[in-house]
Description:
18 strands; alpha/beta; six-stranded parallel beta sheet
Amino acid sequence: LVITSSERSPVKAIVGGALIDGTGAQPVGDSTVLIDDERIVEVGPRAAVAVPPDAEVFDAAGMTVMPGMIDCHDHLSEMHYDIMTRWRMGMPNSLQHLRTAKHLEDTLAGGFTCIRDGWGLDAGFKMAVEEGLYPGPRLMITISFMSGTGGHADRVTGSGHRNPFNNDPRLPDGVVDGPDAARAKVRELWRAGADVIKFATTGGGASRPGHGPWDPSFGRDEVAAIVAEAGEKGLRTMCHALAGDGLRYAVEEGAGSIEHGGYLVDQPDLLKTMADNDQFYVPTFAVYEYHAENSPPHMAERAKALMGKHKRSLHAAMEAGVKIAAGTDMGGFVHGKNYREMEVLVERGMTPLQAIKAGTGTAAECVGLGDQIGTLVAGKLADVVVVDGDVATNISLLGDRDKIKMVMKGGDPFVDRLSDG
């Protein structure tokens, strides 16, 4: 049920639920979350929080109350992995944009109130959401992503041809070589509206044959230039890096988050560096599940080969004290099932509460919004999800849309199945 009325009380109280606040703390039973306009004003046991008589009260007894979830690595505008779709030649731009808008709406309805998009969204989508033109999660966007020639961002056909229609100034091409060109590209992406600079220092599962997880695509000097220029522009960085020298360059030159990192366990000194420097690890298990079963042979082989090391990398990162944030790398294969990464984190060894923290509190820090969202504490924006059942013991409840009883973004209930009882 989508709520469109503007006649609601600005003061709201969600009462009676088991509160998971996103910090990793144990749930608080029979809780109250008190909200005034867009912000949380008080959180605690029901007996300790006074609810004003004019408040709109939502009964969450028997349910879990938790922060709005965050996917640190999505691709909301992507549809399929075939070349025609990835080059945006398979449909009119208008249809592409309208389908993307539906992805935004569906993702929000699934309880994800913030998405860091890994490439493909131009700044107009973020503007539309912020202006209230169309419903969607809060967006942190990269616009495009960067690599050297022949690297992960250098998309070519088997014949060696590149996309002749890749001339949209809102989505600049990200292929650059040399530190000066890398700095210039960061500035171009910043001008186009990027919040985050994404770059790839290695190949990966979905890279072309001959450019795999151990193959670097930027030198150390180029990585240093990207990180430095982004920092000067006040932008965060996220780096696609799986193994070898490219992974080392990304960590040692200060990338804000390491995406995928499937072979981090082979370089344990990098895990210590990440923990010491507050760098985040976004494993993206969900996308490799897909590649292992559905992708072309070279991609499936890579995905299957890394699974054991990938799991061990997660455990080694946790033991080293690295901050783990949830991200799916969805887009080319599925939309609206962003919960799956948190579910897989539990399957790989996290507790449900650890996985929830990875997809809420830690994820908010990772995307640069930790002071605004991610945890249910006084003063933060009221991004709240209410789920029927005990998510602390059954993380899979997050994937049942019938169990998602409320999705609130900034105090505004987008999904409300509580008012009807």
